[in-house]
Amino acid sequence: MRLGKAMASRRLNVLREALSEKGLAGAAVFNPENIFYLVGVSAGVLYVTDSGATIIVADIDYEETREKVSGAEVVKTDFGELPAERLRKIIPEGRTIGYEEGYVNVGLYEDLRKDIALRPLQGTIEKMREVKDADEISRIEEAQRVTERALQKTLGSISRDMSELEVAAEVEANMRRAGAEAFAFETLVASGPSAVYPHGKPAAKRIEEGSAVVIDVGSRVRGYCSDMTRTIFFGQPSAEFVKIYRAVLEAQTAALDFLRAGVTGRDVDAVARDVLRGRGYGSYFSHGLGHGVGINVHEPPSLNSRGRSALVPGNVLTVEPGAYVPKLGGVRIEDLVVVTAGGCRNLTGFSKEMIVI
Amino acid sequence: MRLGKAMASRRLNVLREALSEKGLAGAAVFNPENIFYLVGVSAGVLYVTDSGATIIVADIDYEETREKVSGAEVVKTDFGELPAERLRKIIPEGRTIGYEEGYVNVGLYEDLRKDIALRPLQGTIEKMREVKDADEISRIEEAQRVTERALQKTLGSISRDMSELEVAAEVEANMRRAGAEAFAFETLVASGPSAVYPHGKPAAKRIEEGSAVVIDVGSRVRGYCSDMTRTIFFGQPSAEFVKIYRAVLEAQTAALDFLRAGVTGRDVDAVARDVLRGRGYGSYFSHGLGHGVGINVHEPPSLNSRGRSALVPGNVLTVEPGAYVPKLGGVRIEDLVVVTAGGCRNLTGFSKEMIVI
What we know:
The structure is a homodimer. In chain A, helix 7 (134-157) crosses helix 8 (164-178) and helix 9 packs antiparallel against helix 10 (265-278). The first copy, chain A, has helices at 5-21, 32-39, 59-68, 83-90, 106-112, 124-130, 134-157, 164-178, 239-258, 265-278; strands at 26-29, 45-49, 53-57, 73-76, 96-99, 117-120, 182-183, 188-191, 211-217, 219-221, 224-225, 228-234, 290-292, 299-303, 316-319, 322-325, 329-332, 335-339, 344-346, 355-356. Chain A is built from ten helices and 20 strands. A six-stranded mixed sheet of chain A has the order 4-3-2-1-5-6. Chain A has two domains: 5-129, Creatinase/prolidase N-terminal domain (Creatine Amidinohydrolase, Chain A, domain 1, 3-Layer(aba) Sandwich), CATH 3.40.350; 134-356, Creatine Amidinohydrolase (Alpha-Beta Complex). Chains A and B meet through helix 3, helix 5 and helix 8 of A and helix 3, helix 5 and helix 8 of B.
């Protein structure tokens, strides 16, 4: 369950090497996901130096942090004192420290730099997190198994008189029963024209006959996320929907066949986009092809037109082409894969046959 | 469902008055909750001036934002351009603009202030949100009704052979079926000694005979949160648990009787704390008595030792004393109330009798 000591020590040492290369005496880590990655808990603030690591937490989190942390000593703040305030007292004056520029607000920045020289970490830890180790992949796979068991069970129990909310209720309850400690993101069940919007909430209205229903779900297990989408049909789909579904699936298959270490996210995105363009749905594929998944359900690297660096073994990515036709509805099919030297390993075992309820 | 035009206009005008008092020509609003409060959607960045308001969103959010926004014109970014980048081009050079210092990272701050003078808003919009209007209270009440219907239904179907995860599955599915568009926070179902930790996740292990089970749940309806906790018992509770439960309930009753406009959060907290101290559980009440609830499930004002300003009518607050005894378990009882001139109106109608499964 908890992060092993050897693993925490390895990750902290990779960070220490990066700090040393940048000429930094330490790093103040505020991003809770980065703290979780390094020492297995996500409270307070973590201060890493070349010889040690200290996590500073509020009194209320002290006992739990002590029980669960790996690789760092735990300090609790005084009553009313913020972890960042205590951090200032711990860092010796005049030190040059790395900080996460996206997680430190201006007030704290001005305060810290009175006594300490601050240098942006520029995604050092996020970059480490892009390449998953075996422990991380096993957690992601477990989360994916939980989601798939839940979706399979749900398909056996939903009926055509249900609303989007009722379908969401079933799949979420089944994720819990299968072992989800949390949901990786807000479950999306979007039918008919509402599936055209990317951030739709499930609605209480009955799903209409002939609708495509996009179900985008993920579980969190031991701190790691999974992410998958299947599109099912309530009643026999129209010929147009069959065409769209096949085009989206073909786009995904082409991208999965192409994906391997060494190619860029931009290249993979283009492969799927070309297929959809060839089938006449190019303008209806209104988002990127995929994103990294780990402690966060959306993290680098990305499979889209801005993904210019080469993918490497250990990247865990979604591959999720879609086509969203205004007034008609949307189709999306999403798998989760881990990049390997010669290709990718699909962590999603769920059928992609057209499912009609 | 959506924010009325008159309401958006009223809220924007209150903000404009505050800006004018501070000598500011406008405000850049990045906090998604503040954007939702002002114009009814929560995408991109909102720029408010004395005569207008513009929301800048990515292409993918453009149509949905146009359909749902009130009181602001919608601008979409060019491909690959961030909303904040477009904002820079829209604000005339040399203007003095308010910004949310907790939501602007150092990189963006340095970038914006090349051409624009920036002044911290110091919680101007958050302060407005502390006092809920009738529309907001009706949304919170609706969310609370959804949660209560769900918990009531759950109590009728759970059995003593269940795990924490199975109880969470039931109550969440029932919240969805009752109309929750989302969960206000991660559902907490914590039994036995694990209820001592504030951030425990539901576990797959069967709940032990004689355990107290803390169930802390909330729904989100039309963008607003509810929050409630009940503690139930799996099997007949020990005499010690009966004593703890009564003490916590007595502390809550005393605080609810005392709570009214004009008193401070610190005073209300002290009332509950005194009762628990008198019953011998003072050191086991390890958190504040309550917090504001609205678009965010945790927002100002707070009922704790730092709450030094007077409460006002329209504050919506939780009142949630608890006692957490190491190795034994915890009891918490939480209601949601709206402060009135002479007291408070309890939005929670759920029984506080001891419930034994």
